[in-house]
Amino acid sequence: MSQKKKVTIQEYIANKVKPVFDQLIARIVIEKPDDVYGWSINWLQNQKSGAQVQQLENHDLSEEEEEEEEVILELKQQQKQQTRAAVSAEVYGDYNKKEDFKPRFIQKSEGQIERIKKRILNSFMFQALDEKDLNIVLGAMDEKKFQVGDEVIKQGDDGNELYVIDEGRLECYKKFTGFEEEKLLKTYIPGESFGELALLYNAPRAATIKAIEEVTTFALDRETFNNIVKFSAIKKREQMEEILNKIDLLQSMDNYERVQLCDVLKEEKHHAGEAIINEGEIGDRIYLIIEGELEAYWKGQTEKVYDYKSGDYFGELALLKNTPRQATVIAKTDVVLLYCDFNSFKRLMGPLEEVLKRNTERYEKYLQQ
């Protein structure tokens, strides 16, 4: 069976995204539609419909295509002369390079810096930053407060900042096509971040987020995000999603749920022989196994309960039964794990509890004892 070649973000953008955007931008410049969003959607749909027909035909460039080619060449020439990125160039990543970037700096107390650092290092987006880049982000963060009922971001608006929550709770609502009422998607709590999708993919806000308590956040501007965080965040997210795709338990999740789970998962490594959880202790984490093998033991490590491998999970019994750990789990080899605290798991992954309950049959004979 042939294996699909691994494509980097840069290769995918250069080979798949950029040609489409070049042609789209050229047609927008030529047509100058009032409703750019609506016109672009229709154009993309028409291009998709006509793609198969075009692939079957060999023909010279039409006058329309020649005009597009001329505009594309002109746009590329203008882009070379620009020192700052246009919105479309931002997608390609050819501009706003670090050497030309001057980050904003907002004076803060040592206490504020420590609070921000503690919060942002809980988010996967910032975990891959080196010390220099982390300090730039800390300097650019701006503390912002909101009152009950304030809309921090609104669906459909342009997004210029992402937010990390320090205090208070917010609710996320999304209006779906064909429905008048907004749907409550989730509640955000301290330590979580939101608003990054509009910055990552240069898209309008995907949802509305409202404060339901007095809220304190730390906001990061688009320019700092694009130059310091963006590509490491995309790479980290892709790596995390690739890992989650291997976990059988999570196969029923949609892309949005998988993105949310990425934000709360943390990684840890253990050497062979180390105990990850111990029988009788109070547990507050569920674990997903990325690499390695583990063994679960019952009754003071005298009787083996289960063998775990990459793609399995453990620790869910304490979550489901609200009891101390039922067994000791020991690393048989060196292992790489992802873990999520119970509160976050239940809040984000409620439907998966039924899957977990069904799968407790693997321990059934031990639970009956």
Describe the protein.
Helix 7 crosses helix 9 (222-244). This protein is an alpha+beta fold and 369 residues long. The protein is globular, with a radius of gyration of 25 Å. The relative contact order is 0.09. The protein folds into 3 domains: 9-95, no CATH class; 110-238, Jelly Rolls, CATH 2.60.120; 265-368, Sandwich (Jelly Rolls). Helix content is 42%, strand content 21%. The chain has a 4-stranded antiparallel sheet with strand order 1-8-3-6. The protein has helices at residues 9-31, 36-55, 63-81, 87-92, 110-120, 124-127, 131-140, 196-200, 222-244, 255-264, 316-321, 342-348, 352-358, 364-368; strands spanning 142-146, 151-153, 161-167, 170-174, 183-188, 193-194, 208-211, 215-221, 266-270, 275-277, 285-291, 294-298, 303-308, 313-314, 328-331, 335-341. A hairpin with a 4-residue loop joins strand 12 (294-298) and strand 13 (303-308). InterPro entries: cAMP-dep_PK_reg_su-like (IPR050503), cAMP_dep_PK_reg_su (IPR012198), cNMP-bd_CS (IPR018488), cNMP-bd_dom (IPR000595), cNMP-bd_dom_sf (IPR018490), RmlC-like_jellyroll (IPR014710). Residues 125-246, 249-366 form the Cyclic nucleotide-binding domain. This is cAMP-dependent protein kinase regulatory subunit. 3',5'-cyclic AMP 2 binds at residues 316, 325.
